[in-house]
């Protein structure tokens, strides 16, 4: 089980890494925001409320990739611009979340932050997942990196997501918190970078 001291070390690591890399990435992020603004004809930063540590809501930031409209689960990629598809596939649209990590809403590694109606409704020992900050990457994120493609193949993506994918993600994220180690975080970051 992750301890208070491990949570502190995890936070220190997050802040140090963001401070080291943000100066190098700030110009590419600004450039991507400008490109997305021109591409989608709306402000290039997208924000949305998500469920964070201890069930507290926070605002997540991403590079905008979708055009206006009603975005259905399993059809997000078809709502994305051609540049937006590239940003989503390469995960470059997630770069503004470095700000979320810096201010303490997120961590580099942890369960992906969910919309209301999922993590905030966890019960009993499943709520252990809420002990940690949501992450840019994590074990469930890596397993379901092709989640949009999987959902696109389903007749009822919403039902499949709630009954199959979400249930499995809860199991994976519980195991992550219960068996946490700093070394595990480093491995998951490396896997994410190498896309393996």
From TrEMBL:
Organism superkingdom: Bacteria
Leader peptide range in chain numbering: none
Pfam families: Bac_transf (PF02397)
Ranges of residues in domain Bacterial sugar transferase: 10-193
UniProt keyword annotation of Oxidoreductase present: no
GO molecular function, one term: phosphotransferase activity, for other substituted phosphate groups
Keywords from the named record: Membrane, Transferase, Transmembrane, Transmembrane helix
Bilayer-crossing regions: 12-38
Family that this chain belongs to: Belongs to the bacterial sugar transferase family.
Protein name: Lipopolysaccharide/colanic/teichoic acid biosynthesis glycosyltransferase
Organism in which the protein naturally occurs: Winogradskyella pacifica
High-level lineage: Bacteria, Pseudomonadati, Bacteroidota, Flavobacteriia, Flavobacteriales
